[in-house]
Amino acid sequence: LAQVSGNALLCLSPGAMSRAVANAAPQEEGEGGARRSGWGLLVTAGVGGTLVALYAVATPFVTPALRKVCLPFVPATAAQIQNVLKMLENRSGSLVDIGSGDGRIVIAAAKKGFQAVGYELNPWLVWYSRYRAWRDGVHQNTKFYISDLWKVSFSHYTNVVVFGVPQMMPQLEKKLEEELECNARIIACRFPFPCWIPDHTTGEGIDTVWAYDLKHSRGCETKSLEITPETES
Question: What is the pTM of this model?
């Protein structure tokens, strides 16, 4: 019986075989086309998802360059951190880092006993800073906010650290002078303020740090009241 079937297959005419192959080909092509279409959709979705993810990650880093005053993320060096901590010796009170980046200064200050706060516009850096503070065990002494520095009041801070650029320093100098109390100390890294005369300077090159005591820069000195004892009549 198998032999008969085989002979029957072999005895098919050329025209019949052509029709049989033609009838089978569309089915095979349809299955292959469906598989190719499915893979194409998967590849398209994968590429699209990757591009969206890259856009979401890159945008917070690129956006500052499009602002009127560009404040890019440049990590503080180990020498800069040590110079900042040196300027904070014998200081107390709250501390704020303007443009805190990945939180290095805030975390280092918290380890020295400060209640330290960082303001940063890049949400990825803020979340990473919070993770680093938790990892280093100082999350209870630190806070990080996603905020534009020009929309924040720094009036309740007594220690201010700034990693700025020359274009922003004049405007920031005016803002801090209007908001801070006389007992505040402002520490500038990489670039000094244009008008204030620093009370202390340490480091060299890009690691230079300038410290300004606002009571001297502003000229507000505490005057002691002289009490004249009353004479008995």
Answer: 0.66
